[in-house]
Design goal:
By secondary structure, the protein is α/β, with parallel strands linked by helices. It has two domains: 3-166, Dna Topoisomerase Vi A Subunit, Chain: A, domain 2 (3-Layer(aba) Sandwich), CATH 3.40.1360; 210-256. It is 50% helix and 8% strand. The chain has a five-stranded mixed sheet. The chain is globular and about 55 Å long. The termini are far apart.
Amino acid sequence: MNILHILNGDATASSFEDTGLDGDVMVWREILSEGPLEDNITTGSFWKSRLEWICETFGETPERYQQKVLDPLTMLDTHYDEINLWFEFDLHCQVNMLGVMTYLKQKTDLSAPAIYLVCPDGYPGKENFRGMGELTGEELEYLYDNIRIQLSGFDLILAEEAWKVYCSHDAGNLKNYLAKTDFWGGLRCLKRALEAQLVRLPLNQNGLNYIEEKLLAIYNADNKGRAEIHRAFWETEKIYGMGDMEIDIYLRLLKNKELITLQS
């Protein structure tokens, strides 16, 4: 049987090498929760706009983006009997999951391959679970054996619907979608993540969204260093799943508005 594991980042990939699970590995390195999006994730224009935004925002080179993100996508053109998606509960991971599922739905016949999801929102004995990147190979195998579920055709349709709503970046559209959707199938963490997106979309009277407001409040509470701000944000806002580079996007916006001056 040909098996593919799509992992949510390099940190998980490092531990995954220590599991006894068979199959090829593809590391998903995009951050679709930020930046420009289009409904059709399989088009050249979609990936061109992503490449340009990633390079401009993070100082990446087109060559490295091609190597790290685009080249691995060719694995999804290979026939696999089974695909396992490893994505967590937070908005960062859930939007990446929606992107992968939509890509698979738009590129493949729903009858094959069998698609499974490993989506933890915690781990036994870990009170402050931050993600699969902190787990050992043995612990990843535990998740595989105990929480993995097979996704249905309904789940793929639901993912594509949610993807289109997310891509609209429209708070009213998202609010209506959440209100009318009663059944989430195998995507049990998606509603909470989309609710977090709904919180961050509106702007306050000063033109700041929720993330900027929260970071500004942290800064004004005498947290002037970048690392301090990162830690404080993670303590209360882990639902967003933002890494340091993503938080820095919003810190730069605040700095450009002359609302903060970082020490480092």
